[in-house]
Amino acid sequence: MDALERYTAKGHFEVEGWLWPGAVQLLTALAGLQREFGVRGGMGEIGVHHGRLFILLHLLSAGDERSAAWDLFEDQDQNVDASGRGDYARLQANLKTHGCDLGRIELIKANSTALDSGQVRAVLGGGARLFSVDGGHTAPLTYGDLQTASGTLAEGGILILDDFYNEQWPEVAEGALRFLLDHPETLFPVAIGGNKVCFTHSATWATRYQEALSRSGPGAHKGAELTGNPVLVFRFPQHRGGLGRLLRRLYRLGR
Q1: Which of 50, 69, 153, 228 is the most exposed place for a label (fewest CB within 10 A)?
Q2: pTM across the whole model
């Protein structure tokens, strides 16, 4: 069993943070499709806490792809809504524990309001194929982080937004909807599942992912719309005792 299999099977439960099993299944499925489609790029996250999702993103990367996380870390006086609490030392320890290649990872202390897509691309050495937005949970911060992250996507890249439908953070939905309506040709929804909404940069790529997920994706799903665009909605089975085997199939390991 390799590091990815160990982490998806049970390792992610050992890291403090918020990551639903359904999100693990959805993101693993999307990464597998990216592998099949030949999508290349780095892995990134704004707002990393102790790395529960970031570790998964890195383990889904190829051997020459870079990963980077941006967080306030010890500058918690700037954490205006107390959403998460980044800890640099604990994050580094978690990365080591779960088999991440630290030589391909950069951890950057930054306030995302001072971050732009050009800086992100410079760190990743190009565009991102999986990029998570889980930073400040106010409407203005969500809007700004989506603006930055959307500009980083590689061809076929996926932007992952956390807490859009979480009743504890209504301003995330407000900021996201404002951004989507202000920039209707920038992000197109792909799928909703595990407290994540996944977007890509074109309607063509969104359709390609949705058609592939409809044929072989995990769990029951149905068609819906978000800002007038089609989106798949997933309800994931728990797959107790067999999650690792399921994820191995989704990611097509060993092909």
Answers
A1: 228
A2: 0.86
